[in-house]
Amino acid sequence: MADVVYYDRELECMSRPQLETHQLGKLRDQLHRVYEKSPLYRRKLDGAGIKPDDIQSMEDMHRLPFTEKKELQQSQLENPPWGDFGCITPEEAIRVFQTSGTTGEPVKIMLNRKDWFENFYQQFMHYRCGYGLTEKDILFVPFNYGLFIAWWGFQAAMEQAGLMIIPGGGQRTKDRLRSMIDWGATVVCGTPSYLLAMAETAAEMGIDLAGSPIRKLVAAGEPGAGIPATRQALEKSWGAELFDDIGATECGNFGHECIRHKGTHIVEGLFIAEIVDPVTLEPLPDGVLGEMVLTNLSSESSPLIRYRMRDLVKFDRGVCECGRTNLRLDGGVLGRTDDMFHFAGVNIYPSQIQEILHCIDALSLEYRLVVPRMGSGRHMKIVVEPAQADTKADQLEQACEELAEIVQTRIKVTPDIEAVEGGSLPRFEGKGKRVIRED
Ligand SMILES: [Zn+2]
Prior knowledge:
Radius of gyration: 22 Å
Largest sheet: 9 strands, mixed
Strand order of the largest sheet: 4-3-5-6-7-8-9-14-13
Number of domains: 2
Strand content: 15-25%
Distance between the termini: 54 Å
Structural class: alpha/beta
CATH topology of the largest domain: Rossmann fold
Bound molecules: zinc ion
CATH architecture of the largest domain: 3-Layer(aba) Sandwich
């Protein structure tokens, strides 16, 4: 079994009371910073009747107001282009990114020199050590030069850490596959859906990924790495070990899996993570599904305090087999509160459908969910495609019936199933949009 490597053993393995003392000190520094430099936070704290020095314990933290993405959007709408939530001027910034815009107006984020070169580096060194990457690794990074943060930070930090980077942007999937084989990549990054799509293309091209030097996959951008069936499909088709990698443009890079694969660790030395009920906003115990709330303790450019992530997670504060005490998300990010939809009296997460598709060999893993208007009387529709070009009509029909049955049993709704031609559903390089709501 490979040895566990830590980036900052003390911070990763300290007892919870010690960790909370460390976090409280950093939180108080951040509160002073935002109160002094961020007009939005000064308004929020004044509105709540709180001064930075009022926060004397982690318990006091619950008095602080939450921050929501719509506040950042509104702030930039009223004070274009950067808004008034950040703590630096454009002159101090050296990098800018914007969120993907899947939930409303994209939010623009500036980073200063310290955030880009030091804080991002530190955050990603936790990832590098967690994944067991070394200077001998050759990293294939398929993403395009653009405003979306994607792999920018990971690539920049790994470069500083001495890994070789193969820039895989500006290529079609087939060319990317040839490049990673020709250049001897050992680690490949991608969203779970794009990694699956690449494996499908490799099989069509006759490339033996499992026999290649590629030994690790780093998956980010959407839930999937945490879904056991998706993980299994990825690890099998690539013959590689999969690591979950989570972060957010607004908030930084806060979570990585370790080589023991017992959930996704939060980098608690640099972030405070809380879990709340998405409706009542009351704190939830460990092991219960809820929404993650994050406070970035090291950002200088735009620290966010109690930021509602909209990610659905379960916390586990038990000591990991790797020795880290930093908490773990059980199964990674399990869904998005934004993706969740209410239909026929139940809450449905698209990841549940994905999980079921993995159990049916004759269907590919791509799907669309068409959700009719409430009260229309129509069923929810699941659009699927055969796994292989030569799947027979009766096999496909049987697979569709099986899918309908499992959905009915597990999710308690009766779906209509529509099968379309293999490969005709769109594949996504970035975040996939698989739910279509009808008017
Ligand atoms: Zn661990």
